[in-house]
Write a structure and sequence with these properties.
6-stranded antiparallel sheet; alpha+beta
Length: about 525
């Protein structure tokens, strides 16, 4: 029962390790890595070719020289054998063939008579009896079956004579008595020389490759450094908030990296030209937006007085002592209500225009606990058909900011929950202090139908409206959440939303003024609940 899970865990771990060790495709390597790899690979191939040719050339030369020596040794052995045996049968004195004058140390010799190999001997230094520097023949065992069929044509061939002697270069020649004499010279010196040369070539090649790798890495790193500076410039521009605020696109590629005679310089110059065009476009966009903001601000300011006059005259006429017809009274009421709605819209537009201009807000201590209590009480009075509750920490939470604007943030969030949810919806305003980050967290949660998915991306934009339930009958101008976003950002905070059917949570995070002591657990403030909770 336990073996299968263990095997599964082992397999999963093996797969993870294999994924970590998997080499990236060559096309995804950096230019520096690819250039260094190609250079080192080319040098490795070139070194392998030169080394192989050198080894084979030396081996061929040494074998040719050894074959010349072998041909001379065979001729000397043939003359000695014909002098010793003549036309008589071969005798046991084969040692005279190997010990003939001029034969080098290590010369191997025997006489082949029919299917017999007679008296194999080798010329070597004496190791027992005699003087240490004396030369003499020694009988040796051989296991080379190739000698039985070796042609007596005098051509050198390579034969392995067994573990005792190893490889020899041998040749056979015919004798006057019909037998054949076989003479061989050892390949030990040739093989040792070739092995030593191979070792030296491999060692020198590896050392050269390591040195070439280091030099190539250094040179390529210097070569791509301008490209890295161009990339850093592009990355710096990519991280700039070009979609909002004042844009001063002064970042440029250094002049040293804009030489049109180099590939990197061409890229740098092209990037600088592109940044210049982008800066011009951003400046034009900013000027256009500034004109629009100024127009909205001026228009909103100029509309406040006429709208106030319209409301005043409508109210004055409606309250005049003269009796007015019913339809006139209703028309005056509509004029007054529409003027009130237009005044609210103008005030919202004027506030957004001022925030866009970056005007400083008041920076006074604001008790968010009392602010939430007042806002929830107002919301309960405006929407008694909803269930309202509030959750506060034990200690007051303060921030530095504009009390009126922060109050408007909470009021707008509560009004948004009241207007766009059905009767009986539970709306909860909560306040907490995140001591680790030093931020005050305000959340407004409702269990309504949620926000449509297609609306979430533009929820905090101006004049953003949802489905048909969000129409003029609700009094919504589409600016409430835009004001929330602008005011919160002006206070150095942020606002987010998470919405699913049955739960929508708006979260406002603001820098707290101070963080005193450990964070107390949130609780239901009974006194505030008594003043704010209501059931539809």
């Amino acid at each position: 029962m336990t073996a299968a899970p263990a095997t599964g865990e082992h397999t999963s771990e093996t797969r993870k390790r294999g994924a970590r060790l998997r080499i990236r495709p060559f096309r995804s390597w950096t230019i520096r890595s690819r250039v260094v790899l190609v250079v080192v690979a080319m040098l490795a191939v070139l070194g392998a070719v030169i080394g192989t040719v050198s080894v084979f050339a030396l081996q061929g030369y040494l074998m040719s020289r050894l074959d010349g020596q072998l041909t001379s040794a065979v001729e000397r052995g043939q003359r000695a054998a014909n002098r010793i045996y003549g036309n008589a049968p071969t005798g046991p004195d084969v040692t005279g063939i190997v010990a003939a004058p001029g034969q080098p140390v290590g010369t191997f010799g025997l006489v082949r008579s029919g299917s017999l190999l007679l008296y194999p001997v080798i010329l070597a230094k004496q190791t027992a009896g005699g003087a240490p520097n004396d030369l003499g023949p020694q009988n040796v065992p051989i296991t080379a079956t190739a000698l039985y069929t070796l042609p007596s044509d005098g051509k050198p061939r390579t034969v392995n004579l067994g573990p005792t002697l190893g490889e020899y270069r041998v040749a056979a020649a015919s004798l006057t008595n019909g037998d054949s004499v076989i003479i061989g010279l050892p390949l030990n010196d040739v093989n040792a020389t070739v092995r030593q040369l191979t070792f030296v070539i491999v060692l020198v090649s590896l050392s050269g490759l390591i040195f070439a790798f280091l030099i190539a890495s250094f040179i390529v790193r210097l070569a791509v450094r301008p490209l890295e500076r161009v990339a850093e410039t592009a990355q710096e521009v990519a991280e700039m908030p070009l979609d909002r605020g004042d844009v001063a696109l002064s970042v440029r590629v250094p002049d040293a990296d804009t030489d049109p005679h180099t590939e990197v310089g061409k890229v740098g110059a092209a990037l600088n030209r592109m940044l210049g065009h982008v800066a011009s476009a951003l400046t034009a966009r900013q000027a256009s937006e500034q004109k629009v903001r100024q127009f909205v601000a001026d228009a909103s300011h100029e509309l406040r007085t006429p709208l106030a006059s319209i409301r005043g005259y409508a109210e004055l006429t409606r309250r005049s002592p003269h009796e007015l017809p019913g339809d006139v009274t209703r028309s005056l009421g509509r004029i007054e209500s529409e003027a009130t709605r237009m005044t609210s819209l103008v005030e919202d537009l004027l506030l957004l225009a001022r925030l866009d201009e970056g005007r400083e807000l008041d920076r006074d201590p604001v008790d968010l606990s009392m602010l939430l209590v007042n806002a929830v009480s107002d919301a309960h009075a405006a929407g008694p058909d909803h269930t309202w509750s509030i959750v506060l920490p034990e200690e007051p939470v303060e921030v530095l900011g504009d009390r009126a604007r922060l109050h408007q943030v909470v009021v707008n969030l509560l009004a948004n929950a009241r207007v766009h949810t059905p009767e009986g919806t539970q709306v909860t305003a909560a306040l907490s202090l995140d001591e680790e980050s030093g931020r005050a967290i305000v959340t407004v949660t409702d269990n309504g139908p949620g926000i449509p998915e297609e609306l979430k991306a533009t929820l905090f934009e101006r004049f953003a409206r949802g489905d048909s339930s969000r129409n003029r009958a609700t009094g919504s101008t589409g600016l409430g959440l835009a004001i929330v976003h602008a005011v919160v950002e002006a206070h150095g905070g942020d606002v987010t939303v998470q919405s699913d059917p049955g739960e929508t949570v708006f979260t406002v995070s603001l820098p707290a003024r101070t963080a005193t002591g450990d964070e107390a657990p949130a609780h239901e403030a009974s006194a505030h609940e008594n003043s704010a909770d209501a059931t539809a």
